[in-house]
Amino acid sequence: MNLWKVKNDELQELPKSRLDSEDRLESWIAKDSAITGLEILLIGRQVVTAYGGRIDLLGMDGEGNLVILELKRDKTPRDIIAQALDYASWVRDLTYEQIEVIAAKYLKRTLREAFHEKFQIDLPEEINKNHKIVIVASELDPSSERIVQYLSSEYNVNINCIFFDFFREGDQEFLGRSWLMDPEEVEERTISKKRSPWLGLYFVNVGDGEHRSWEDCMKYGFLSAGQGSKYSRPIRKLEAGDKVLAYLKGRGYVGYGEVTSSAVMAKDFILPDNKKLSDKNLNQPNIMENCDDPDLADWTVGIKWHKAVSRDEAITKQGIFANPNVVCKLRDQQTIEFLKENLLIEKD
After folding, report:
1. pLDDT at residue 197 tops 80
2. Does domain 12-191 match CATH 3.40.1350.10?
3. CATH 3.10.590 spans which residues of the chain?
4. Which residue from 36, 163, 209, 242 has the least number of CB within 10 angstroms?
């Protein structure tokens, strides 16, 4: 990674510097795990394993799976990979009760409370079905990178590397982040073989709130996400013909439909009457905030709703599939059957 600043319409490259202590990096991640690009709840720091090792940071994703974050520090490149695999062998067998104890010690409250606050969904009844390893480093030698890629591609180990580069100019410090492999591709490749088969439906979080309204989505036939590329990127992958289930956080499932058009920025979304969405009297006009910035704008896909209900009619029950991701593949057969019984999805 290289970093430039723009001064007087000219580019000036910032020199890389050495981070004086990786304890600082660990503290930054502990304070705000979002700098990793992962949506996780940290549940432990310097977690002691049964084998006497210490996991730098232990997190949990929105599906209840554990995430091992291990900093390279002064360990040799190959040692860090071996150590991370050793930690994973321990994490794999952790029970629900053991994870609750680890989390309560770090969070100073119950895992269930912290999980709900972080992801706005209930903690799954079954957790730690899968786990992932993330090695955090400023750099790795080429052979170690090849080992990580080999473990991921050939043996379906969910392992990846985050590289943090440190820059300094005068008394200002800058931190940059990159991944060895696309984390979404690694996730899909390594976990899909352990999961139930995909059922051909996409789960989509409506994101009802400050920047968009479910009533608008239902009335004008669209779904939208944005105010940051990490939110808009998933919805931009939807294509015409994809079938989606809309989920309203804290409520339940509210819509079943088919994508009719690929994603465009909200300001450019054209309705069936050939008018722009921006011309309508929206319940939530803030959807047009940052409308000229591709990275911050809301991106919108057209939807033909086969069935859509109001927020007060949302369909839900205890244990129904829910996920904090903007878009994900729905694989839970029980959820599908429940939605068919409640007439949101047409029966075969």
Report:
1. no
2. yes
3. 201-341
4. 209
